From TrEMBL:
GO terms for biological process: response to oxidative stress. This is Redox-sensitive transcriptional activator SoxR. It holds the Pfam family MerR_1. Residues 1-70 form the HTH merR-type domain. It comes from the Bacteria.
Length: 150
């Protein structure tokens, strides 16, 4: 069953402009009818629900697009395909949770530090790892470094 862009927007609870944006980013797909109007397969509603849920848990549109790129474009994926995608997301989310826990556990040191003591900051310079870069180097750790260094 095919749906118009307005029908999809209404049923999915998003704006038409959001659908256009998702399509531009390769998250969803449509085709054009003879009147050059966008049409979507009914299964697009599941894709949009997954996109919205993934955004709620903090996944970027790039991460979502990467995962959805292996799924069928114009029909609903199988349960196994959804499960494989969810497993990948689970690993990503567990990694982020570990990073946030590391930040949370060391944030208290920042309140006392105020980054006035950069050679001793648990987030900026744990275990004085910046020393190898020279004393004049200033660089905040990237999130992926938090769990590696702390």
């Amino acid at each position: 069953m095919e749906m118009t862009v307005g029908e999809v927007a209404k049923r999915a609870g998003v704006k038409v402009s959001t659908l256009h944006f998702y399509e531009q980013k390769g998250l969803i797909y449509s085709w054009r009818n003879q009147g050059n109007q966008r049409r979507y397969h009914r299964s697009i509603l599941r894709r949009i629900a997954v996109i919205k849920a993934a955004q709620i848990v903090g996944l970027s549109l790039e991460e979502i697009a990467d995962s959805l790129s292996v799924l069928p474009k114009h029909h609903a994926p199988t349960r196994e395909q959804w499960t494989q995608m969810a497993s990948k997301w689970q690993a990503m989310l567990e990694h982020r949770i570990a990073q946030l826990n590391a930040l949370q556990n060391n944030l208290g040191n920042c309140i006392g530090c105020g980054c006035l003591s950069l050679e001793d900051c648990a987030l900026y310079n744990p275990q004085d790892i910046r020393a190898k870069d020279g004393a004049d180097k200033t660089r905040l750790l990237q999130p992926e470094e938090w769990t590696q260094k702390i």
